[in-house]
Fold this protein.
Amino acid sequence: MPKNDRAQVILLLADGFEEASVSILLTTLRQAGLAVNLVGLRARRVSGAHGLVIVPNTSLDRMLEISTPILALILPGGAGHLARLRVDPRVSTLLKRSIA
């Protein structure tokens, strides 16, 4: 398992995420100098609750392959977003890793 030593803030995205909160969080955290990684349930684009499309930096599968320290894991709200995250067993694995 490859390792990246720089702790990251993970913004985990699924279809239906709330675009305003993701945009503000992403901008604010990066302006503060933090490494923010947009992680999607899949590698391709993710659609927000109001039609904004974002291409994640990486997929959840790829994130789980890399041993990266997690500074914070953020699950933004949105229409159906949290429900999609809740039913994906990989999210539970990522949550456990972030707690450790």
Summary: The longest strand covers residues 8-13. The chain has four helices and six strands. The two ends are 17 Å apart (CA to CA).
